């Protein structure tokens, strides 16, 4: 015998009888015979081990236990109903949800353009974006909490795939009155004694630390100052002479009158970014997103 306690159809019949106060009126409401409704509720009661209703000539009234059961079961049924809707939406073309993890800026460049184009094409997809450290993003992809993460380099994670999509030039943000502000480019030796300002935001701080770790060697140990501000106010601090900061192409176009962005000419000066996702992830929205990302990356390479 199937588990009738978990059969939403039988629960629906019981809810209708409780609502109408009568087996007959409940049956009429769904164009079904009274005997069928009565028989199915009897099966449900047998499965539950007790009566849901007190029957009389005037109708049907919930027992105390029946009222408690229907109240709790109706709440559970609503959750199941929403879960079914989400499942159907996920497998319907152009619907569902995608969760994106990143540690770079959405100010300009490839990634914000990609996210914007995807949103324009798939309006019914709920796009969730979260800033994350490298470790948080990779853990999120592996656990399924994040569908796709955008990370520097080309991370190799177990049971995951990655594809390099775009690159950004590395700049040094300097105060306009700095002696290197008018230079065509800078080398790290020029800024050996500078203080590098690091933003407090999860993604910004992690990305800056990642880049500075790449640059650090026995001859260059940068002095860093973590500031409790976001990237925008950090650049304002640079303009006021508190220090210098690293910036990628996606942020170098920011309008800060007191700041100049000078390209770096030695060491790592191009930063590559990849999309990383789990091979076990069957989210159709992710498939659409990756197809668009690959298409957009190829278009950019053709232009360049």
UniProtKB/TrEMBL annotation:
Species lineage: Bacteria, Pseudomonadati, Pseudomonadota, Alphaproteobacteria, Hyphomicrobiales
Key words, A-Z: DNA-binding, Transcription, Transcription regulation
PANTHER family per the UniProt record, alphabetical: HCA OPERON TRANSCRIPTIONAL ACTIVATOR HCAR, TRANSCRIPTIONAL DUAL REGULATOR HCAR-RELATED
MF GO annotations: DNA binding; DNA-binding transcription factor activity
Protein's organism: Agrobacterium vitis
Residues annotated as domain HTH lysR-type: 6-63
Function per UniProt: Transcriptional regulator of the ttuABCDE tartrate utilization operon.
Listed InterPro entries: LysR_HTH_N (IPR000847), LysR_subst-bd (IPR005119), WH-like_DNA-bd_sf (IPR036388), WH_DNA-bd_sf (IPR036390)
UniProt key word DNA-binding: yes
Family to which this protein belongs: Belongs to the LysR transcriptional regulatory family.
Signal peptide: none
Protein name: HTH-type transcriptional regulator TtuA
GO cellular component, one term: protein-DNA complex
Transmembrane regions listed in the UniProt entry: none
Top-level lineage group: Bacteria
